[in-house]
């Protein structure tokens, strides 16, 4: 097998495994105590109210307003509303950057679909479906590359010119932006040299069918290496925040489920109360892990003294 | 200033928060110049760590030897490791790890922080400064390969005693109001990182502000109340309250105590009994008039709803919360209603919610909610014209942003004040600003910390309160801040004294129930008292 193809597979495997490990790590963490932050859209009270506003709230059926949740989430993810509202100067550059990313990824997904259609014999020139997919691919990708490149350069300039951002940015922030910017720019150049993404689609088809790859230009090879390198590196960075947002919102800020006697929750709490404690301060009385959470929480070291 | 500079061995404060840098206040304080924060005496400087900003809230002693320093640094690192373990920190592991791993360094949170803004944007008070130091240490010293390319990856920070000492103080320059977390586009919670940092210091090194630990939660567990009030004293105080109620209303009311099988256990912040007895009195008058079946408890710990552990120590927190729940269970009440105390609300209603299996929990409810229900029921007749003065409302962060109780208190105020008298602060509700006394600051008074909090942490609230009454600043026009939280009232009281707010502007403060009783048709005498009333008479 060709070294480029091998590296591409490898980057895919690293991406999937590392990402899965990350998700698993968060999914398997203990249920934490409640630490919600209002407003919580599914409460259905735009001013930020909660079920605590109702007398005897535990006796009432709770309705989660899922529409309100989506109405919050969609503009948040697509348009980065938080920054639009609270940090407009940064939004001007980070919005094109993120939109560029979304569109480019969309373009890639459509390119993969195009490659699959090609494998089953549907080509843009002959099949209306393939033609549609092809057109969408180009529109998404090209707009994505341009926006992404503008955003990446804009972010670098913003980080360098704003005194607070300059003070708090670290070398790797610039490195990541330059890397992503290079991917957008080289992708755009690849499109200029191959406006139908024919070679790229053929390359994807070769990966899907485990067949020899088409000939790639130097530019295409550079672009490919930049891309697969980043693909493998990405799950190890804080840039996976698009995914962590799910946990941040759904599992922390919006986790307001009251503990009203659910067998699963009860079992978890019992397990956690049995965990050993090794906190060393004397008032904890953990005895280096001999005591559990249940022990230390039900001991009042000062009752004796009070008597 | 870069986070790495916290390791500076100069022994000098990293910043000097000078009055000329503070954010301005509105009229009549537009020309007001504060005195600088008092310097520690030479003796205090020799004894206490103060190299963060020249302020000592903890009176942290300097280590006596190099070995002692090294031991403390090692203990700090081991505490940090424990924060990231599920056994030792199941309570907050997931939110903490998320906040540690995902900051995008966009600094959107900076301007949401009242302390940072009011200090004149001093870097060390920026929400991310503290968090970044903690993140960088964890990455460099606790993550596999952390020292590889540490500079390039942005966490080449030295961990020395100076860092630990400064971080200990820095953990007490944030009110845990979590306003910064609300604006973060990623969902990172810098307030939580402060909370966890305080836990590390307390649970591993036994370092905490004396007012919240040795003179706070320890006293609570030892004597029954963080005020030091013992059971016998509470019984006496309740009798005094009954006498005072008779004096003020002409009616003898029996305050129910330890009544088995009552519907409700009402818990107050015990500070109210001492500093603002009108507050528990007003509750008694209202509950009596509305025919509420309730009781107070005089069981040790049961008469003080506070739970300082919520600010710095999970174990102290759990000890108090479990005792509160046990007392309610022994009384056989159907629910616990929490009086006007913000952190007691959050502690018992929200955070304690997953401490016990569901069946063993007792439902908890905000007094605001129940009071609104009383107003809606029409059982008590109110005459809003009795509260005929401009009023604004302070939102205790613990009850509003952190619990979502926003509307009841507003509806009550609208029902008990004449139209047009109630005005909101900007911003308000879930976007409110902390009073500046959050996370224990209201009761912390060691070293020169009071100077710091009066100038920096409560300044935003003072700015907001003045803002709400612009155009009516004539001191002869009496104006009221309704502040339904004992802690917030404490902070506002101290801030008003420091800035001489009442004599200069005629703005005073009270709780919610006091204003309700003041408006009761049955109440012949005014219930509210203004500071200069005695002189007027
Ligand atoms: S905490 Fe959030 S808002 Fe603050 S710098 Fe990090 S990502 Fe930005
Ligand atoms: S929690 Fe509040 S005081 Fe603390 S850093 Fe955030 S905004 Fe500032
Ligand atoms: S003292 Fe009051 S305003 Fe301040 S944090 Fe507590 S509840 Fe919030």
What overall geometry of chain B do the principal axes of the alpha carbons give? globular
Give the strand order of the largest sheet of chain B, numbering strands 1, 2, ... along the chain: 2-1-3-4
Determine the CATH topology of the largest domain in chain A: Fumarate Reductase Cytochrome B subunit
Average of pLDDT of chain B? 96
Which class of secondary structure composition applies to the elements of chain B?
mainly alpha
The percentage helix of chain A is: 55-70%
From the spread of the alpha carbons, the general shape of chain A counts as: elongated
Order of helices and strands of chain A: HHHHHHHHHHHHH
Number of strands of chain A: 0
Number of domains of chain A: 2
Oligomeric category:
heterodimer
Gyration radius over CA of chain B: 24 Å
* CATH C-level category of the largest domain in chain A: Mainly Alpha
Our measurement of the CA-to-CA distance between the termini of chain B, rounded to an integer number of angstroms, reads 56 Å
Fraction of residues in H or I helices of chain B: 40-55%
Walk me through what this model shows.
The complex is a heterodimer of chains A (307) and B (537). With 307 residues, chain A is mainly alpha-helical. Chain A has two domains: 3-253, Fumarate Reductase Cytochrome B subunit; 274-306, no CATH class. Chain A has 13 helices and no strands. The longest helix of chain A has 34 residues, at 128-161. Chain A is elongated, with a radius of gyration of 26 Å. With 537 residues, chain B is mainly α. Chain B folds into two domains: 3-207, no CATH class; 219-536, no CATH class. Chain B contains 24 helices and eight strands. Chain B has helices at residues 42-47, 66-83, 86-89, 93-101, 114-118, 127-142, 150-153, 161-170, 179-183, 190-205, 213-223, 231-249, 271-275, 278-290, 314-331, 342-350, 367-377, 407-416, 449-457, 459-468, 486-498, 501-505, 512-518, 533-536; strands at residues 264-267, 294-295, 335-338, 364-366, 391-393, 422-423, 479-482, 507-510. Chain B has a four-stranded parallel sheet with strand order 2-1-3-4. At the A-B interface, helix 3, helix 6, helix 7, helix 10 and helix 11 of A face helix 2, helix 3, helix 4, helix 7 and helix 9 of B. Residues 175, 177, 342-343, 396-398, 434-435, 437-438, 442, 485, 487-488, 491 of chain B line the site of one iron/sulfur cluster. One iron/sulfur cluster binds next to loops of chain B.
């Amino acid at each position: 097998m060709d070294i480029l193809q091998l590296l591409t597979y490898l980057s895919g495997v690293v991406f999937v495994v590392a990402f899965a490990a990350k998700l698993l790590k968060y999914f398997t963490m203990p249920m934490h105590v409640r630490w919600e932050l209002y407003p919580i859209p599914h409460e259905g009270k735009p001013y930020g109210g909660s079920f605590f506003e109702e007398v005897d709230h535990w006796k009432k059926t709770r309705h989660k307003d899922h529409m309100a949740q989506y109405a919050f989430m969609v503009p948040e993810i697509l348009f980065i509303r938080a920054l639009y509202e609270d940090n407009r100067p940064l939004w001007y550059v980070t919005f094109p950057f993120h939109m560029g990313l979304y569109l480019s990824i969309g373009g890639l997904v459509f390119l993969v679909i195009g490659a699959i259609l090609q494998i089953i014999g549907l080509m843009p020139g002959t099949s209306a479906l393939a033609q549609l997919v092809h057109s969408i691919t180009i529109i998404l990708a090209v707009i994505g590359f341009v926006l992404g490149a503008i955003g990446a350069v804009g972010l670098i300039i913003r980080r360098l010119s704003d005194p607070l951002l300059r003070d708090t940015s670290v070398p790797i922030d610039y490195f990541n932006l330059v890397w992503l910017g290079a991917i957008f720019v080289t992708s755009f150049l690849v499109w200029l040299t191959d406006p139908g993404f024919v070679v790229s689609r053929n390359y994807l088809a070769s990966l899907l069918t485990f067949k020899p790859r088409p000939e790639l230009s130097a530019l295409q090879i550079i672009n490919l290496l930049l891309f697969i390198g980043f693909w493998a590196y990405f799950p190890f960075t804080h840039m996976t925040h698009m995914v962590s947002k799910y946990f941040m919102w759904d599992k922390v800020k919006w986790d307001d489920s009251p503990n009203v006697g659910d067998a699963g929750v009860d079992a978890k709490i019992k397990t956690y109360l049995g965990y050993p404690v090794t906190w060393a301060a004397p008032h904890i009385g953990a005895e280096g892990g001999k005591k559990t959470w249940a022990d230390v929480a039900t001991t009042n070291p000062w009752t004796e003294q009070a008597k | 200033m870069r986070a790495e500079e916290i390791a500076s061995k100069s022994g000098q404060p990293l910043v000097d928060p000078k009055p000329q840098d503070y954010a301005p206040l509105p009229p009549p304080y537009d020309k007001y110049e504060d005195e600088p924060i008092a310097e520690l005496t030479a003796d205090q400087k020799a004894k206490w760590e103060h190299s963060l900003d020249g302020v000592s809230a903890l009176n942290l002693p300097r280590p006596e030897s190099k070995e002692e320093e090294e031991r403390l640094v090692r203990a700090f690192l081991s505490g940090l490791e424990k924060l990231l373990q599920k056994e030792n920190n199941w309570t907050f592991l997931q939110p903490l790890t998320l906040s540690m791993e995902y900051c995008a360094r966009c600094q959107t949170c900076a301007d949401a922080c009242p302390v940072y803004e009011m200090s004149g944007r001093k870097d060390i008070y920026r929400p991310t400064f503290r968090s970044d130091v903690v993140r960088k240490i964890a990455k460099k010293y606790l993550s596999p390969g952390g020292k590889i390319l540490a500079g390039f990856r942005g966490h080449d920070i030295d961990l020395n005693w100076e860092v630990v000492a400064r971080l200990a103080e820095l953990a007490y320059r944030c009110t845990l109001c979590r306003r910064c977390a609300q604006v973060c586009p990623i969902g990172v919670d810098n307030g939580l990182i402060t909370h966890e940092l305080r836990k590390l210091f307390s649970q591993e090194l036994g370092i905490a502000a004396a007012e919240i630990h040795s003179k706070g939660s320890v006293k609570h567990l030892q004597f029954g109340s963080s005020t030091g009030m013992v059971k016998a004293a509470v019984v006496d105080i309740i009798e005094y309250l009954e006498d005072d109620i008779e004096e003020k209303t002409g009616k003898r009311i029996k305050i129910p105590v330890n009544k088995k099988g009552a519907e409700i256990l009402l818990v107050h912040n015990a500070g109210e009994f001492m500093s603002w007895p009108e507050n528990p009195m007003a509750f008694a008058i209202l509950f009596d008039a509305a025919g509420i079946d309730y009781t107070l408890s005089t069981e040790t710990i049961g008469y003080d709803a506070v739970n300082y552990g919520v600010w710095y120590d999970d174990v102290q927190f759990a000890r108090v919360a479990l005792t509160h729940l046990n007392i309610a269970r022994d009384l056989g009440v159907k629910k616990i209603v929490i009086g006007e105390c913000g952190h007691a609300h959050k502690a018992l209603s929200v955070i304690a919610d997953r401490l016990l299996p569901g069946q063993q929990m007792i439902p908890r409810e905000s007094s605001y909610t129940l009071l609104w229900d009383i107003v809606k029921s029409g059982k008590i007749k109110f005459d809003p014209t009795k509260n005929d003065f401009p009023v604004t409302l302070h939102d205790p962060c613990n009850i509003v942003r952190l619990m979502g109780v926003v509307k009841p208190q507003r509806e009550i105020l609208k029902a008990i004040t004449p139209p047009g008298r109630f005005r909101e602060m900007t911003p308000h509700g879930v976007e409110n600003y902390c009073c500046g006394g959050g996370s224990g600051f209201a009761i912390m008074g060691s070293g020169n910390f009071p100077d710091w909090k009066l100038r920096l942490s409560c300044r935003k609230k003072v700015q907001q309160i003045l803002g709400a009454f612009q155009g009516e600043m004539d001191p002869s026009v009496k104006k009221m801040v309704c502040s339904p939280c004992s802690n917030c009232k404490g902070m506002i009281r101290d801030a008003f004294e420091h800035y001489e707010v009442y004599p200069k502007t005629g703005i005073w403060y009270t709780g919610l129930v006091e204003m309700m009783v003041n408006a009761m048709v049955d109440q012949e005498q005014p219930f509210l008292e203004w500071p200069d009333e005695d002189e007027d008479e």
